[in-house]
Amino acid sequence: MTCTDIEQPTVRERHHPSDTTDAEWAILEPLLPKPACTRPTGGRPEKHPRRNVVDAIRYVNDNGVKWRSVPVDYGIPWRTVFGFFQRWRASGDLARIHAELHEQVRVHDGLNPRTVAVILDSQSVKGAETVGNGSRGFDGHKMINGRKRHLLVDMRGMPLTVMVGVASPHDSVPARDLLFRLRLTHPEVTVVWADSAYGGTLIDWARSFLGLTLKTVPRRKDQDGFAVLAKRWRVERAISWIMRARRNVRDYERLISHSEAPLTWTTITFMARRLTRPPRPPRTTPHLAEPAKAVGKPTPIRIRMQPQAIRLTPTALC
């Protein structure tokens, strides 16, 4: 009997909505790192099926519960689940799984595995009481005390790189670290779209030191309130996808490096579901545009005043 003889269920009934399906597990299992007992460094054999470990991590991430609240039906102690979560993040296996899934999604959609253009944006979230003062800040623009997430997505809205930092600096300051990380991990990217907060000297710095063309998409001059802007709406949609997982609604992690891991797990779950969902049926009837209505004079609004009873006092009668 070897250390890898533990039963790994490939067909299993789902107990929670966040659990992996059989099709998702067929995609994720080959991407997981090899057990420690099979490596030259050696290690103890694993006692629990890895599918249960992955499902427990996804349960915590999707429902936003504490690590101690891992359901007992998984049959794994919460310390073991957190240990896998921490080791896969520290070893870089989590980032590798995310990168390989990202390429599979692009090939599945009929695109090149590598993207050459990305979109950049940030989001400020509140920090829980577990976030220390040294790793949190105050965003004066959005009036949020916590941390700020910086997200890079491709032109289809698939998250590519995530970085978390304190919320106090201007967006252009941590963007240099994020763009430098982008250049190291994805050297094929040449164009970066962002809002006007990333303009100014950052454009010249990105061109001179990284060879990136940073283009800004400003708001329209006549814009009043919310409006969908070209290219920027894709990264806004990706942020809304990430916020569906309750663990990401607020930052609970003590370490910034741990704050990036739940975001990565959310995108891994989303991409695995996208690869296994059934194809949409083709449109049988053409979409007919509605005829434009004639623009006329606006209809005046009539306001009917309700009669109010007048109470007369003895002083008013004199």
User: Unreliable segments (pLDDT under 50, ≥5 consecutive)?
Assistant: none
Structural class: alpha/beta
CATH class descriptor of the domain at 114-252: Alpha Beta
CATH architecture of the domain at 114-252, please?
Answer: 2-Layer Sandwich
Shape: globular
How far apart, in Å, are the first and last alpha carbons?
Answer: 109 Å
Rg, alpha carbons? 26 Å
Query: Could you tell me the strand content as a percent range?
Result: 5-15%
> Average pLDDT value?
84
What is the CATH H-level superfamily of the domain at 114-252?
Answer: Ribonuclease H-like superfamily/Ribonuclease H
Alpha plus pi helix count = 9
In total, how many beta strands? Answer: 6
Describe the largest sheet: 6 strands, mixed
The CATH topology of the domain at 114-252 is given as Nucleotidyltransferase, domain 5
Q: SSE string, helix = H, strand = E?
A: HHHHEEEEHEHEHHH
Helix content: 25-40%
Q: How would you describe this structure in keywords?
A:
about 325 residues, Nucleotidyltransferase, domain 5, 6-stranded mixed sheet
Describe what you observe in this structure.
By secondary structure, this protein is of the alpha/beta class. It has helices at 22-28, 50-63, 78-90, 93-108, 172-185, 201-210, 232-242, 256-276, 314-317; strands spanning 117-126, 137-139, 144-154, 159-166, 191-194, 213-216. Among the domains are: 22-90, no CATH class; 114-252, Ribonuclease H-like superfamily/Ribonuclease H (Nucleotidyltransferase, domain 5), CATH 3.30.420.10. Strands 1, 2, 3, 4, 5 and 6 form a 6-stranded mixed beta sheet that branches. Helix 6 (201-210) links the parallel strand 5 (191-194) and strand 6 (213-216). Helix 1 crosses helix 8, helix 4 (93-108) runs parallel beside helix 8 and helix 5 runs parallel beside helix 6. The radius of gyration is 26 Å and the shape is globular. The N and C termini lie far apart (109 Å).
